[in-house]
Amino acid sequence: MNVLVINAGSSSLKYQLINMENEDVIAKGLAERIGIEDSMLTHQPGNGEKVEIMAEFKDHTDAIKMVIDALINPEYGVISDMSEIGAVGHRVVHGGEKFSESAVINEEVMQAIEANVELAPLHNPANIMGIKACKKVMPGTPMVAVFDTAFHQSMPEKAFLYAVPYSDYEDYGVRRYGFHGTSHKFVSRRAAKLMDASYQDLKIITCHLGNGSSIAAVKNGKSVDTSMGFTPLEGLPMGTRCGNVDPAIITYLAEKKNITAAEVINYLNKESGVLGISGISSDFRDLEKAKDEGNKRAKLALDVFSYDVKKYIGAYAAAMSGVDCIVFTAGIGENSPLVRSYACAGLEFLGIKLDEAKNEQHIGKEGEISTSDSKVKVFVIPTNEELMIARETLELVS
Ligand code: ADP
Asked: Which residue has the least CA distance to atom 13 on ligand 1?
């Protein structure tokens, strides 16, 4: 069966068509500037050349129609008609407490996703537009929602509760939800395979380090703690997000800068993180280059980030009473030997020993980067959220 994976943003929509017999990507692409002028679709058939198609998408339904047209186009298409799409898997950011697993989309599930808009006002509305558009264009095709939060619903209460009055949890849903669940699940399952062990027997720390970064403690196949919280602002410092700060800073800065609390939150989301510290860039490639050229603040940003990764590794080893393996994934985790080296330095007392030569060799490719006598295995595993969404979709519709 072919599964179409959809990741809908407010003005863009990414897609992949995956043949589930061999898990090959038959085609992928991106519709951009939906509802804005100069919208366009970039479509890439399996091994073929990218095609750029200029077309006006006034909404997500137009964009999905164009995606289907591209998929069945006689010249650069990959299927002969829509019936060759067996199911659609949608990435949905927030599943709240309702979804601890992926779900076949029906009226009740749609209502629950809509009820979570309050918790993810920037993301869920776009995901809903993507689902509605697909339902309109492909009314008979089964659809599945795969939630970023679902994998973390196994966290115990002691890990997800904040120390605010319990009634705020009961009345307003104030708690840690965690994000990047699809990625943490994918790489932890893959790590178990690389260790030739069952994921049910392992304690794994997964470090998803990208533009947004989060770390998870995965014990016996279940997430027991994670660094992102009520929103994706908590935890590690990120490209432009501050991560953990004392909440008193919010009103303090609001007063000093004469801006509202909402404006401070925006500032902590968009102008902080490693960009804020370095004053240079949110991109780790730029920071590493600047550090090599002697820029102190770029070095400082890399130090702050890696130090926090290290602290989470220590904390989650304690939370799970041990750790069997550590996984680095996503843009920085997969591609930055420097961050991996900084983050693991000095953790020999936990049984973590990095093989620096192997670490340098593994840029963007899977493999073990710990020494042969390291008690804790350390892996680089490229994440593949689309494939995980397709797998979950196939499982639910078969
Ligand atoms: P997202 O999916 O959250 O947008 P990614 O997982 O693609 O982000 O990660 C993007 C980040 O990965 C970039 O901002 C950049 O900092 C980092 N990155 C990519 N390649 C490298 C590299 N070769 N060295 C260091 N950092 C890299």
From this structure: 283
Among 285, 288, 340, the mutation site with the greatest number of ligand 1 atoms within 8 A of its Cβ is 285
CB 184 within 8 A of CB 212: no
- List pLDDT tens digits, range 242-262: 999 999 999 999 999 999 999
Catalytic residues: 148
Half-sphere exposure of 178 toward its Cβ, with a 13 Å CA cutoff? Answer: 31
Atom of ligand 1 at shortest range from CA of 383: 6
Residue nearest to atom 21 of ligand 1 (CA): 335
- Mean pLDDT for 187-206 is 98
| Residues in a beta bridge with 17 | 4, 27
pLDDT in tens, 314-347: 999 999 999 999 999 999 999 999 999 999 999 9
Residue 130: phi and psi, rounded to 5, are: -65, -45
- pTM reported for the whole predicted model: 0.96
- Give the angle subtended at the CA of 365 by the CAs of 374 and 294, to the nearest 5°: 80
- Determine how β-strand 325-329 pairs with β-strand 222-226: unpaired
Which residues does residue 24 pair with via DSSP β-bridges, in sequence order?
Answer: 19
Q: Which domains does the chain have, with CATH numbers?
A: 2-147 (3.30.420.40), 197-380 (3.30.420.40)
